[in-house]
Write a structure and sequence with these properties.
Elements lengths: L7 H16 L9 H20 L5 H13 L5 H19 L5 H47 L1 H14 L3 E6 L4 E4 L1 H7 L23 H9 L5 E9 L5 E12 L5 E10 L1 H15 L9 H12 L6 E9 L2 H8 L1 H18 L5 E7 L2 E8 L2 H15 L4 E3 L2 E3 L3 E9 L5 H17 L4 E4 L2 H23 L2 E10 L5 E12 L3 E3 L1 H11 L2 H22 L9 E6 L1 H4 L4 H12 L6 E6 H4 L4 H13 L2 E7 L16 E4 L14 H16 L3 E4 L5 H10 L3 E2 L10 H13 L1
Helix pairs in contact: 1-2, 1-4, 2-3, 2-5, 3-5, 4-5, 5-6, 5-9, 11-12, 12-13, 15-16, 17-19
């Protein structure tokens, strides 16, 4: 086997070689095969460029199809072999580096455009031949008056030797003469054609204007007309033709006969129908594909007043696991079985099922009562998935999540409807799957906003849209400021200032939390450096900065080295930094997860266990955690905002403080909002606190003001 071509030009020439070898045997040409290949090479280049173009241009495919006719590839077999070649080799040799599924879809559309261009060019060429024959017939008729014997021989030669069907009828529609080509088209004897009347050949698919044009012609109001028309053959099959009918006049200019020229387009039409089917149906399941579904959805959304639509968007739960464990062949068989079941669910008028791709399916219902019908359709789909699917001796359980969108036509675009259905489907999946949910405008808006924030996050960090506010940490014994917690904010261009609850989960999901967390750590440590230099030599205690660590940062392999580098670059000692880790992140943590925290603690960095009391961890675990500070969750101290406090809460807090101090841990309390609360916590032995009672989060200058007030008070 020869090696694959190296560069794009080599692959393009290989494609042109395969193409020429396939088509050359059925092409009538004086060129040698290498010369014919050279003629096909520019056409192959146009196909390659159209395949990889940013925007699809069907005109390129039509131009290539027309160029085949110019190259004398007019045999239908030449077109068939060309399309087979394009289908098999265009993406293989010219689609390197692109999305294969998208390229194959575009290749299918290019084939359809090529067939259309080929058909149009062949039709124009045939029309030119027809016009030549008609002119010859007219000239022959004129010569009859001058030299009947010579014209009759000439006309008969043209009439009988033509490759297209020719028939002559009088003005009443009675057929007088037909040639052999026309008889072969109809597949019957001469008696089945000659002697019949033109008006007998009506067909259910005749265009409305066909017989109007005919009447105008026989009345002498037009000289000719051209239409696409179907005829029934004697055996009941259908003959499709390009039909040109011309009016023949006598020497005085009066209408005398009608001349019909027919080109058999049945095979070409079948080919176009096949291409259309392949372009609009899923190759694996046979269901309508995304293209046909969008056509139907657009039609439903543009229906008249009073019309509604209902859409079920289905995604199989756990399908990737089946593919990964049993292989793609088993996954494909599962999809085929699911498609068959879904098809059986949509049998009522106005209902259809389509496969969008992968394990995603849609079911559409239209009419005036879709509010009820779409719920019933979703229930039928869920019931159809209940029975296990048996593949290779295994019984596979099929589960699915469905998002339902229903509403009146004319209010939303197809893209908006599908987006809402997709969002709703993922809402059903996040709720546990194997269920369906109804679309909700508010939920859609929140999801769209989340998506917008997610996509804007990377650029926001680069553009410097994040900033940090600081909330003071106050010593409960003497009221002095001992440091601050760094709280990151996002100044969004459209949404204004966003708190961490709006974007930190998104940053964790996308992995951006690592660079964002590093940036927060850098800025916070620099601020701690500035505070320490400002208060050096004063009675103010050295200020410490608290920075939150997310679970993603905790497992990042560069955590320790990044922290060391940041501290060294800022020129501050490790005791200036406290890293806060939530209790839930450390529940059941193994030694590998705790190792980086232990290394940081050994360096002198304080580790605080944040939100303590919300994770239901075993208090005995505190002994194995490398923490020096407990941050008590505000839920334990809310009752202390009023006097008297809940005695149960007092006992709980007292017990936690006692346990922490026995383990040489200090206790910080969050959410202190009243003086009564602060006094009670001081009595219970808590060490430091933070909350709105002392100060809301703000710029670093505010902490400076508080610290100076302590120093001078």
């Amino acid at each position: 086997m020869s090696a694959e071509p190296d560069g794009p030009e080599d692959r393009l020439r290989r494609f042109a070689t395969i193409w020429s070898r396939a088509v050359f045997p059925v092409t009538v040409t004086s060129l040698t095969r290498p010369e014919f290949e050279a003629r096909l090479l520019p056409l192959a280049r146009r196909l390659s460029e159209a395949l990889r173009a940013r925007a699809f241009d069907a005109a390129e495919g039509r131009a290539v199809g027309a160029a085949l006719v110019d190259a004398h590839c007019t045999d239908p077999e030449a077109l068939s072999r060309t399309l087979d070649c394009v289908d098999a080799y265009l993406v293989l040799y010219c689609g390197e580096g692109g999305n294969q599924e998208d390229l194959r879809a575009r290749s299918s559309r290019l084939q359809h455009a090529m067939a259309a261009g080929f058909a149009q060019a062949l039709r124009e060429r045939t029309l030119a031949e027809q016009e030549s024959i008609a002119q010859a017939a007219l000239r022959a008729q004129g010569v009859v008056a001058q030299a009947l014997h010579a014209s009759e021989a000439r006309f008969r030669a043209v009439f009988e030797g033509a490759a297209i069907g020719i028939g002559i009828a009088d003005l009443d529609g009675n057929i007088l003469e037909v040639n052999g080509a026309l008889l072969r088209m109809f597949g019957g004897g001469e008696q089945n054609v000659r002697g019949r009347n033109v008006r007998d050949w009506t067909h259910a698919e005749d265009a409305p204007q066909v017989w109007r044009l005919y009447e105008e012609l026989v009345r002498g109001e037009r000289e000719h007309y051209h239409v696409e028309k179907a005829f029934y053959r004697p055996d009941g099959t259908v003959l499709w033709t390009n039909l040109t009918v011309s009016l023949l006049r006598d020497p005085d200019g009066n209408p005398q006969y009608q001349l019909a020229l027919m080109e058999d387009t049945t095979e070409r039409r079948l080919l176009n129908l096949r291409l259309r089917y392949e372009a609009t149906h899923d190759a694996l399941t046979g269901l309508p594909n995304r293209t046909l579904f969008f056509e139907r959805l657009e039609k439903a959304l543009n229906a008249g007043p009073g019309q509604r639509f209902g859409l079920c968007y289905l995604d199989l739960d756990g399908f990737k696991t089946i593919n990964d464990s049993l292989g793609h062949a088993a996954g494909d068989r599962l999809l085929v079985e699911v498609a068959d079941r879904l098809q059986a669910c949509a049998t009522a008028p106005g209902e259809m099922v389509a496969r969008l791709g992968g394990d995603e399916f849609v079911a559409l219902t239209t009419g005036r009562d879709t509010q009820r019908e779409v719920d019933e359709l979703a229930s039928r789909i869920m019931n159809a998935l209940v029975a296990p699917v048996r593949i290779d001796g295994r019984e596979l359980t099929v589960r699915g999540s469905i998002g339902i969108v229903e509403g009146p036509a004319g209010e939303r675009s197809a893209a908006e409807v599908l987006r809402s259905a997709d969002i709703t489907m993922y809402r059903a999946k996040s709720a546990g799957g194997n269920r369906f949910e109804l679309a909700d405008a508010e939920a859609d808006a929140r999801a769209i906003t989340r998506h917008g924030l997610t996509t804007a996050l990377p650029a926001a960090l680069e553009r410097g849209e994040f900033f940090i506010e600081y909330q003071p940490l106050v010593h409960l014994g003497d009221g002095s400021v001992r440091g601050a917690e760094a709280l990151v904010r996002w100044l969004h261009p459209q949404h204004g200032v966003l708190g961490p609850d709006r974007f930190i989960p998104l940053a964790e999901h996308t992995g951006l939390i690592v660079p964002l967390g590093r940036w927060v750590l850098e800025q916070s440590v620099r601020q701690a450096k500035e505070w320490r230099e400002r208060y050096a030599g004063t009675t103010t205690a050295p200020l410490r900065i608290n920075v939150n660590l997310s679970p993603c940062q905790l497992t990042h392999p560069g955590l320790v080295q990044d922290t060391v580098d940041i501290l060294e670059a800022a020129g501050v000692t490790p005791d200036a930094l406290c890293l806060e880790v939530t209790e839930s992140a450390l529940i059941g943590a193994d030694d590998d997860l705790l190792k980086p925290l232990r290394r940081l603690a050994e360096m002198g960095v304080d580790i605080a266990l944040d939100d303590f009391g919300t994770g239901y961890s075993n208090l005995a675990n505190l002994r194995r955690l490398p923490v020096s500070i407990l941050k008590l969750d505000r839920s334990f101290t809310q009752s202390m905002q009023q006097f008297p406090a809940d005695p149960v809460d007092l006992k709980i807090v007292e017990g936690i403080v006692s346990l922490a101090h026995s383990l040489n841990l200090t206790v910080t309390v969050e959410g202190v909002e009243t003086g009564a609360q602060a006094d009670q916590l001081r009595i219970l032995g808590c060490d430091t606190a933070q909350g709105w009672y002392y100060a809301r989060p703000g710029p670093p200058e505010r902490l400076h003001e508080l610290a100076m007030a302590d120093a001078t008070g």
